[in-house]
Amino acid sequence: MRFNRSTSVALAGVLSLGLLTACSSSSDDSTTTKPSGTAGADQVTITVAGLEPGAKQDAVDQLNARVAAFETKYPDIKVEPQEYKWLASTFTTQLAGGTLPTVFEIPLTDGKTLIQNGQLADIDAQFKELSYAGDFNKEALAAGTGDDGKVYAIPAKSFYDVTLHYNRDLFTQAGLDPDKPPATWDEIRTDAKAIYDATGVPGYGMMALDNAGGWQLTAAAYSRGGRVQTTDGKTYTATLTDPAVKAQLQWLKDLRWEDNSIYPGADLGWGDINAAFAAGQIAMFTSGSDIYNALVENNGVTADFPYGLAPIPVEGADAGALTGGTFAAVKVDATDAEKEAAVKWIDFWYLSPLLDQTQAVDNATTRAAANQAVGTPVLPIFSRDQYELSLSWVKDQINVPLDHMKPYTDVMFDQPLVGEPSRSTQPTYGLLYPIVQAVLTDKNADIDALLATANTQDQALIDQGKEE
């Protein structure tokens, strides 16, 4: 994979080597762990982050089927799934209140901070029992490793990059070719207006309700070659006034007040924009490349939905698609028995389907039977070869519209990638999303002034080491 130079993120190279380097084992027994015990042994109960809140019954049924299979394999472990969605704003409260599940998910960017704060369990010993523990890309695993060299969080889901999601039917109704989606921000603007003029449906939607709005503004700015943070390796500098950030805000403002082609409200968060897109209320939006799974699980999207997937425009020097990933962690007060059971679940639920043919087929079969997505394109956490091998195992179960995802899959391994800002990530997004709201709701919003104020505030947060 080709990568651009990035001065903004200490973890900018986390994903690079693992995507193409053959670093993982592909033997069928590669995901085995030490036996958990036999029926009659002292039973351990763990709670696990299962699905996003509001998941459809089919998704719940598929998860329950996998839980049953896990409990058959490990009869001394009882698994209780619960709805869970990572939010930096609620994590500390959940931790203090004892309401976190035993196994929960965290974003790549928050791993180091949570480790340094002593908020994740040390699962190094249990991790090392995995037969493929040495097969992870070392740079990726480093994001879940503490300064003491111990593992506190495990790469658990394939990584994503921010992409363009679009409604093919709305393109057709506007006289546009859905097999040739827009490749530049100017083309997105032109197509958004054409769709609105022809159908009355907003041609574009923008997350703006919460930190997701700052995340997607950052993604767009990075795709234009900008940065919201730079570093010389020691000092981190807020750069919210970067011309690319201003250019994207002006672009949004133009869509709203000149073209009238963007969803006019500021009330779309991550889940809200998914729901609006699934309901045909917007034609295009940007989000993670893996979002099709959530559209199926939470929004009832089916195989006949006119879904299209394309890369985010990448324009100019240092431009790239913003990337991220998900790690699985264990609550800090877990007992040794709970930690052992938790890592077995992480192995079974997240990782075995990527490395073991039997587990891959079993997982894909239950997903397909429950009308869940199989084969959604993602960036692999082990290697490209292993990723493609795992897809070959489940080719008969793949049910996603791959033909309509070709604009993305044709280039997914060639896109330059850029990591998220590595200091005060969520606070930075929290300062940016009100500016997105401002340009969508106030025709006279002063972008320069808003960014200047936010930049001063952001630098203070970075200097204070503020991460929440």
What does this structure look like?
The chain is an alpha+beta fold and 468 residues long. It has 2 domains: 16-21 and 31-159 and 325-372, D-Maltodextrin-Binding Protein, domain 2, CATH 3.40.190.10; 162-323 and 417-464, 3-Layer(aba) Sandwich (D-Maltodextrin-Binding Protein, domain 2), CATH 3.40.190.10. Helix content is 43%, strand content 12%. Strands 5, 8, 9, 10 and 12 form a 5-stranded mixed β-sheet that branches. A 3-stranded antiparallel β-sheet has the order 3-11-4. The longest helix has 20 residues, at 336-355. The protein is globular and about 65 Å long. It starts with 15 loop residues before the first helix and ends with a helix. 52% of the residues are buried. Residues 1-27 form the signal peptide.
Summarize the structure.
This protein has 468 residues and is α+β, with helices and mostly antiparallel strands. It has helices at residues 16-20, 57-73, 88-97, 111-116, 124-128, 138-142, 168-173, 185-199, 211-223, 243-259, 270-278, 291-299, 336-355, 357-369, 384-393, 406-409, 425-441, 447-464; strands at residues 44-49, 77-82, 103-107, 153-155, 160-167, 229-231, 236-238, 284-288, 307-311, 321-324, 326-330, 417-419. It folds into 2 domains: 16-21 and 31-159 and 325-372, 3-Layer(aba) Sandwich (D-Maltodextrin-Binding Protein, domain 2); 162-323 and 417-464, D-Maltodextrin-Binding Protein, domain 2 (3-Layer(aba) Sandwich), CATH 3.40.190.
